[in-house]
Specification:
Layout (H helix, E strand, L loop, with lengths): L18 E5 L7 H4 L1 E8 L6 E9 L1 H7 L2 H8 L9 E5 L2 E5 L12 H19 L6
Antiparallel strand pairs: 1-5, 2-3, 4-5
Helix pairs in contact: 2-4
Length: 134
């Protein structure tokens, strides 16, 4: 029997992703208010690429994150890969996560944890504020 030179990659993959979950007490939140991603301004190429600015795109949460200059300063100190953070509402919670990484590159630094924690505090603040009537 010959060995397959192009094996199919079924089964467990060597990929990891940290998720931070903010529980919501109300399942009837407006999801479009909390779905947000950063648009990163960068300088350099490939391994020397670094973040020089952040513009959050999304609902009302994006407005709150854009107004936080300390958060922007914290994120410009992260690597380009770590600064690609996504905030997504799910059933009963809102999750904060980054990109998938392999086991050699997967880390959770104090700086990255502080950024996730600060985003979570903005989410909690948005959840506790009364809805705006239009």
């Amino acid at each position: 029997m010959t060995q397959d030179l192009n094996p199919v990659s079924w089964g467990a993959q060597d990929r990891f992703q940290a998720h931070f979950i903010v529980k919501t007490l109300n399942d009837n939140i407006q999801e479009e208010n909390f779905l947000t991603r950063p648009k990163l301004e960068t300088k350099g190429y490939f391994a020397t690429k670094r973040v020089t600015g952040i513009q959050w795109i999304g609902g009302t949460l994006a407005d709150a994150l854009n107004s936080d200059s300390e958060l922007k300063s914290m994120m410009t100190k992260l690597s380009y890969e770590d600064a690609q953070i996504c905030v997504e509402p799910t059933k009963g919670s809102i999750r904060i996560h980054g990109k998938w990484k392999d086991s050699h590159n997967f880390t959770m630094t104090k700086q990255l944890f502080a950024v996730y924690d600060r985003i979570a505090s903005h989410i909690k603040r948005e959840l506790s504020s009364p809805p705006v009537q239009s």
